[in-house]
Amino acid sequence: MEEKYIEITCEVESSEQGEMLIARLNEGIEAEGFEEGEGFVKVYIPETKYNEAVFYQLMQPDTRYSISVVKNENWNAIWENSFEPVIVENFVAVRANFHKSIKNVAYEIIITPKMSFGTGHHATTGLMLESLQQNNCAGKKVADFGTGTGILAILAEKMNAEKVLAIDYDDWSIENASENIKRNRCRKIQLIKEDHFPGGEKWDIILANINLHVILANMQSFHQTLNNNGLLIISGILQEDRTEVESLAFSQSFLTHNVQQKNNWLCMAFKKEATV
């Protein structure tokens, strides 16, 4: 039986209000996709996972919204129609397979725009791309936690990482990331399904574009699995959460390496202090 999705269209007055709404909903419901547009945010939730009472509690009292039901392929068609290439200076271009090739960039990534998070359009993914522009992956071992579409893992391989581990817990993301990894002809990426950051192996760079609670819950694992002087680059963090994130990072002997901001979102890079 084909799965259906609840499509909720919420009216917003600004892009910042829209991003705040996405952050709040992403923490509280099992949404599989968000779409931002001029004056609105659309939320897509599997019909079997939609809880009207929980959704209502997360909404501001004066927020106007409408609800409809769409089929899986209808959702994907809508997403594809609204997907435009993302270009970060002359560093990287992210496009769909139906777009023309983009010239004069160091790296080009082809993403099938389905329901997985991470096409470069949202501020958090854009900030992560910009952060990788500033950090060399060549010859390094890179882990991408909450890989979504696989965009950051794919970029790490294209930047000549020695090995890349892509991790997600969502079945749709695993399927979509696998498709995108193959489409970009990547050979060094291992894709696994986990709801926590795995221990054992050591990494030079850990990427985590995911929500605040998951980042905080895995901070110790990040520190334990990073090599000395390794980098932890995280996003999905709002400006008001900075103190809480830094406090926990400092308690794990991380040092702030760099902080970038776009709208109300942060991308924070921490360096692991060398230990004897």
Could you characterize the architecture of this molecule?
The chain is of the alpha/beta class and 276 residues long. It has two domains: 4-81, Alpha-Beta Plaits; 124-272, 3-Layer(aba) Sandwich (Rossmann fold). The chain has helices spanning 15-28, 52-58, 72-82, 123-133, 151-158, 171-183, 212-217, 219-225, 242-251; strands at residues 4-11, 33-37, 40-46, 65-71, 86-88, 92-95, 107-110, 141-145, 163-168, 189-193, 203-209, 226-238, 254-262, 265-272. The strands form three sheets. A seven-stranded mixed β-sheet has the order 10-9-8-11-12-14-13, with helices on both faces. A four-stranded antiparallel β-sheet has the order 2-3-1-4. Strands 5-6-7 form a three-stranded mixed β-sheet, covered by helices on one side. β5 and β6 form a beta hairpin. The longest helix is centred in the N-terminal third of the chain and has 14 residues, at 15-28. The N and C termini lie far apart (58 Å).
